[in-house]
Amino acid sequence: IRFSDLTPISGMEQNSFLFQQAARIGLSHTDLLEYIINQTLLRYGKPSLDRRAQSKHMKKPIYVLMGGDTSERQVSLLSGTNVWLKLLQTSQYQPTAFLLDQQETVWQLPYDFALHHTVEEMSEHCQKASELVQVIDPMVSEIRNRLELPPLSKRNFPLPLNMEDFLQQAQEHKAFVFLGLHGGFGEDGTLQKCLEERHIPFNGSKSIASQLCMDKHETAKKVLSLHSPSILAMPQIAFRLSDSAASLREIATAQFDTDQLLVKPQKDGCSTGVVRLHSEKELAAYLDLCSKGQTQAPAQLFAHHGNPVEMPGKEQTYFLLEPFIETDRVYALQTELHYEKISGWCEMTIGVLEKKGSYRAFNPSLTLALNHILSVEEKFQGGTGINITPPPESILPADMRKRVQENACKVAKVLGIEGYGRLDLFVECATGKVRVIEANTLPALTPSTVLYHQALAETPAIEPQQLLIHLIESP
Q1: What's the start-to-end Cα distance of the chain, in Å?
Q2: If DSSP codes are grouped into helix, strand and coil, which group holds residue 428?
Q3: Which of 38, 116, 172, 338 counts the most CB atoms within 10 A of its CB?
């Protein structure tokens, strides 16, 4: 063996290789951290930790479902794993992790199979579980013996189910289904309808609101029904994939009075397939990629996108053209925040909680994008984006921030959002006027999600675990 690198302090993200390898020998995150701390205490002649005995009372079963086949499936994996791990630390819940793979198999996951980085990797390990265990098991006993740990009592394997079996099992066990899915049938009301018909409780909005919010065109119509001068919808042109790029661009530039356009799928989540267009040629290239079901647009195919763009993958029929909104320039240079006023509008995101028809909006967050459009990674992956919660008063004064929160509650109410949601908005900072970009009924709950930032900025602060408990108890 040649050692290329020795790292005395390992990375400790929730699915880091350290935790993956520890899980293979039967150690949970808590077990491993306790072992490390106790070995350190032993080295210094200090008494070891005495972990409290686990509560013996019955815990409510929580089925955490993550993965899927959408372009947001890896974010879903981060969300679901994070929720599952946090709920494991509670006294009242017994969470079980389930993976929905790209072939629509639902895998009930043992601890050591729930920590991989991608849906594809996790699915492959589930399918090859017997082979993997045969290789690993002979080493496990020796490793545990060297660490002075007792032998493993039992080895659990991933259990494959179809969706109907999963729903039936949840119903029989009286489980709460925590949806960690993003986009597709997991967020568009389809799965919500199945759960409603079986009277299985779940997080987030019911099927009608979920279907409405997944459709950005219908969302805009609903927002316009408020007839509020301080709450605006995005101007839009809905079109089909088969429509002519030349005529579409001509109509859009005339209607919006600008040649700076944005194209996006009418029914897809988050930043998927959102592209700023420079020309008719770029719109034609975009439509060609979509017609072929491409999952990614190459870097620099579009003038305003230097990096690859995540595309819907599955063929979409309906799309939207919108005017590109030029926002103020906000960026961080080393440790200093810089602000250049351009239009007076800034892009922000805001979480909303609902309970029994009452709405509460968090402080909004100002997210700094590297490019013209926030990527999925910048929104949800740690270390890739900068969120400022709340925005500095020099950008959004306190009275205008309150007005934004009031407007967000009105939007959430008219859309019928239940439990929680996240609104992406353009905000006119001097007036508190908002223009709704989209509404998310199952916003990401990754370790670095802005929803946790906003909850922690409340007075009193809402801890991530408290927030998850609210999402379970609010239906």
Answers
A1: 55
A2: strand
A3: 116
Torsion angle (degrees, nearest 10) of CA 211, 216, 222, 228: 150
Note whether 475 and 201 are within 8 A (CB).
Answer: yes
Residues 6+ apart with CB under 8 A from 442: 179, 180, 181, 182, 186, 187, 203, 204, 210
Domains by residue range for the chain, with CATH: 17-199 (3.40.50.20), 212-232+326-473 (3.30.470.20), 237-323 (3.30.1490)
Partners of 401 in the beta sheet? none
CA distance to 2, 349, 363, 451, per residue, from 388 (Å): 44, 10, 10, 12
Contact by Cβ (8 Å): 415, 219 = yes
Alpha carbon distance 181, 196 (integer Å): 17
Amino acid at the residue 174: K
CA pair distance 75, 444, nearest whole angstrom: 7
Mean pLDDT along residues 104-117: 96
Question: pTM of the full predicted structure?
Answer: 0.92
Nearest Cα residue to 149 out of 16, 40, 38, 55: 38
Digit-coded pLDDT (tens) for 16-52: 989 999 999 999 999 999 999 999 999 999 998 876 6
| CA 286/CA 249 separation, integer angstroms | 13
